[in-house]
Amino acid sequence: MASTTTTARRESPARRRVLDTARALFYGEGIHAVGIDRIIAEAGVAKATFYHHFPSKDDLVCAYLEEQLSSVRQLAVPRGATPEEKIVSVFEAIGEITCKPGFRGCAFINAAAEYPDPGHPVRRVVDTFRRWFRDTLRDLLIAAGHPDPERTALMLLALRDGLAVAGDLDDPANAGPAVRSAVARLIGTDAA
Amino acid sequence: MASTTTTARRESPARRRVLDTARALFYGEGIHAVGIDRIIAEAGVAKATFYHHFPSKDDLVCAYLEEQLSSVRQLAVPRGATPEEKIVSVFEAIGEITCKPGFRGCAFINAAAEYPDPGHPVRRVVDTFRRWFRDTLRDLLIAAGHPDPERTALMLLALRDGLAVAGDLDDPANAGPAVRSAVARLIGTDAA
DNA sequence: CCAAGACTAGACAGATCTGTCTGGTAATGT
DNA sequence: ACATTACCAGACAGATCTGTCTAGTCTTGG
């Protein structure tokens, strides 16, 4: 069937290897800095096979970011009983990732820095991520009965961006706790 | 004298044109995306002249960021009577820049995204900027008698980073006010 | 048994990248 | 008057970039 063919192609081993290699190299060294030749060499894939699965490099970049998107969505699932706990748990999860060795900042922020054109497909994936995260925070704040969910969601998003940047450029050990107490100050009962 | 020669070289018209062009192109389109050939063409400078002033592209990139650094230092001078007002004024200044059309995010964050190696000269300029900003905020908080200046400075730095990212990737009109009230919440008298 | 598709190996084209080099002009200061 | 220096114009080298193409192997479903 058509669906079988599609599934087979999507889960092809060569394609999988290319995507894994692309994620490691794009994230670790930057997108423009990594050429197709190097990706296919390290993935052990022929050039024709690569261009069979990905019509262009931009398609690979989009696929890489879309995988990151679904990965983050799974990892940053809110846990806890109350909406406040859920918000904190999301930041705890991000904070842990952010302090890990090998952390190189937010894949979406970094990618956007290399794709200035707001209409580019890559930027659209970035937009999807940011809208999802903002809406998630807003909904949690609404559920928590926060008086100003819309604006507070923007504050929290800004804090997350700052945490991601600091985890890459500054000392992650300091940034994590600081951002966490900032979140507490912003959504704490005293703020309401 | 040597100093005369040095001054003449540093203020040479060709060098000035190269730096202006580099700033516009690097900031607007990304660093790896802009080649030397294009910079010298748009600056109207011969290739030999370029390599006379800048031994390599990396030197130009560093010079570009160092100019941004001193420019920000002049622009973000704290104004106002009280330390609280000074902190807010710095964010007001940054907020205005951030909402301007043509804003493409923080030049240092964007550059760091393209230079993953923390030991690279480019990253050292980025570090200088971040240390300066963090120390400035911390000193203002100390002057304001804030109980936790060190950690609060990190929070404010994270907010600034988030504001810069949001001004580029999201709707700047929303991000500005949100971050400003977040600053108020974090340094407000109730926080003390 | 055989057709189709996934895959490999690698040459090739055309553009672009950084950086070097030659050669010549113009201004400047001593 | 002369040496130095800034500058221009552009060829050139060698590497690397994306993307195409040929040609052949291997696997698998019908």
From TrEMBL, chains A, B:
It comes from the Bacteria. It holds the Pfam family TetR_N. Residues 35-54 bind DNA. Gene3D superfamilies: Tetracycline Repressor, domain 2 (1.10.357.10). The keyword Nucleotide-binding does not apply. Residues 12-72 form the HTH tetR-type domain. InterPro entries: Homeodomain-like_sf (IPR009057), HTH-type_TetR-like_transc_reg (IPR050109), HTH_TetR (IPR001647), Tet_transcr_reg_TetR-rel_C_sf (IPR036271), TetR_C_31 (IPR041583). Keywords: DNA-binding. This is TetR/AcrR family transcriptional regulator. It comes from Actinoallomurus vinaceus. The lineage of its organism: Bacteria, Bacillati, Actinomycetota, Actinomycetes, Streptosporangiales.
